[in-house]
Here is the input.
Amino acid sequence: MNQETRDLLDSFSDIIRQLTVLTGQLSQVEEAKAEAASEKRHELLDGFIQKEQAQLLKLRGLEQHRMKLAKNLGWDSLTFRQILDRADSQQREVLLPLFTELEQQLNRLIQSRKASEHIINVRIHEIETLIALQEGSSYAPSRSVSVSAPSRPKMKDTYG
Here is the structure.
């Protein structure tokens, strides 16, 4: 492998490491969001969402850099599996553990995101139900609020 290819591979490997770290950080934010929502600490969610947005911007920049390096290495538009298939033994030795670790972090992120989304949707459902009950509307199990006549009459102060 010539020096230029080695330098490109080193840069590519560094980007994969950075993507792995950032993916782990995104997972932590998702897990924190899920915890905050499950503890009904909704005031914390805005901070987590802002942090997540900054991380996603950084992720996009890293991904663009990764794609540019992949193109320079002759791996334009290839998946990680395809890159490993085309890489020589030295490259494969470097890349396999990096891709494996990144894949693990991506799977963690997917699971964290699903859990966070589920818990937040449950909280939204609870809030919608409370609002409907406070307004005197009935709430259908299909998660739709009926704004027609309430299912029970509103209480009136008959002593006043």
